[in-house]
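#struct-pred
JK: can someone run the complex with calcium ion? inputs below
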Amino acid sequence: MLQRQLLPLRIVFFRKIKTVQLLKRCLDSVVPFFLAGVLFIPAVTVCAQTQPPIYQWRLAMSWPDGTPMLHNAAARFARNVEIMSGGRFKIIVDSPGRHKAPLSVLDMVRSGAYEMGHSASYYYKGKDPATTFFTTTPFGMNPTEMNAWYYYGGGLELLNKVYARHNVVAFPAGNTHIQMGGWFRKEIKSIQDLKGLKIRMPGHAGEVVGKAGMNPVSIPPGELYTALERGTIDAVEWVGPANDIKMGFHKIAPYYYTGWHEPGAEVHLFVNKPKFDALPDDLKAIVAIAAKEVSFDMLSESFYRNAIAWEKMKRQSNIKIRTLPDDVLDLFKQANDELLDRAAAKSQLAQEVVASQRAFLEKAKDWSKITDEDYLQLR
Ligand code: CA
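RT: done, structure tokens with the ligand placed:
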């Protein structure tokens, strides 16, 4: 009883102590202002303003919980933002298990339902054809070339010119490195084998294989294994050894093809534009730096984990490694060029993106050939 009566007194007492401590901290910080001749009262106002607001935002990612590299990238980004902001900016990462809309992350960020998203730009090509090529382009740039284009070749500016129309600020935020071409139940020996084959292949590459006679579909990452198991699809492309082996595709479709369609797929951080614009400048810079760091980190982690997984995978006798026949690749290249022209014709911005990537790739190809390609032949 007595304790209950004392409780309010205690609260008052502790509040007073807290106020005194706060005032002492304020007075400590006031000294330089006072010495500089600034009046005491305005200095207290400065002190009151130094208690910064805490931002607590939510980020929707397209990837299921625990997806190697991709979930790591989103979680690492959130963690780094909180550390760099001294705890002023906290981001809760939600997976599709919670938000239920893996391929609608852009919509959720655009509307403000989520302040942030981590997703692949090419999932939204139906909404805006100009978004497609920011993830990757078949037979296009590798990750080194892609980074050069993004950070020095005008890519970042184009990215935001496109996403401004969707009420979103976008940043490159993770690269998978060169992806493998996917898992097939049956071997592809000729162009005829492509006919009617149902494959999960999103983005522009899906259109390319469609033009070549296959039947491309876009299925959320969390449903891929079931779709392959039930025969909804005959083949599936996902990422590379480290991600793919975890999905278990090799148990159903043993032919594993080398890549051509995603030579350095970049994923992105989306931020609701009005909310981003309202952030203080230091938090804006923290978001940009954390996104750039995670872009580099995911590429490094992807390379490392794929190299380790590949070493084990190539020794498994039930997995048959193949490269598509030359005539199939030639057909894909031709279809890709025609479809790039068609995509460019759909909108002025798509045309700008395609033209910018093509122009840089022409220069980059020669430099990569005399450096990377030449060196890889030597060792
Ligand atoms: Ca992929």
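RT: quick notes.
Confidence is low (pLDDT under 50) at residues 1-47.
The chain is about 55% helix and 15% strand.
JK: thanks, will look after standup
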